[in-house]
Amino acid sequence: MAVKIKYIVVREGQEKMAFASKKDADAYDKMLDLAEVLNQWLQQGPVSLADEQGEELAMWMAENKDVLNTLLKNGKLPLTTDARTDEAPAADADPQNKQDEVSRKPRRVA
């Protein structure tokens, strides 16, 4: 019999994600905190967003906080693979490979 330890992030009584390490669970919990604050901030903005859109945008911003931080500091997008995935594929690129790359990105658990 094997014993496994799981660290589960729970929000409002719902399990959001399970991790093998406390460090990863804490980082995810911190990201959820940031997404919540970003969503509140976005609601105060001049653009009306549906609740679901605001939550999705806030989560995306929290997931990409390093890119956002670099953008705010330098005024430029960093040259990372994450920043380049939004660009149009090259003419010789296989569109199926691009779709596979996008579908492999981690998704949050609702």
The portion of residues forming beta strands comes to 5-15%
Number of helical segments with 4 or more residues: 5
CATH architecture title of the domain at 23-86 and 94-103: Orthogonal Bundle
Structural class, judged by helices and strands? mainly alpha
What is the CATH class designation of the domain at 23-86 and 94-103?
Answer: Mainly Alpha
Q: What general outline do the C-alpha atoms trace?
A: flat
The poorly predicted ranges are 83-107
**Major sheet:** 2 strands, antiparallel
Placed side by side, the strands forming the largest sheet appear as 1-2
Beta strand count: 2
Distance between the termini: 32 Å
* Series of H and E elements: EEHHHHH
Radius of gyration: 17 Å
Share in helix: 40-55%
Mean pLDDT: 79
Instruction: Fill in the CATH topology of the domain at 23-86 and 94-103.
Output: Arc Repressor Mutant, subunit A
Written overview of the protein:
- It is built from 5 helices and 2 strands; from the N terminus they run ββααααα.
- With 110 residues, the chain is mostly helical.
- It has a domain at 23-86 and 94-103: Arc Repressor Mutant, subunit A (Orthogonal Bundle), CATH 1.10.10.
- The protein has a two-stranded antiparallel sheet with strand order 1-2.
- α1 (22-43) crosses α2 (51-63).
- The chain is flat.
- The two termini are 32 Å apart.
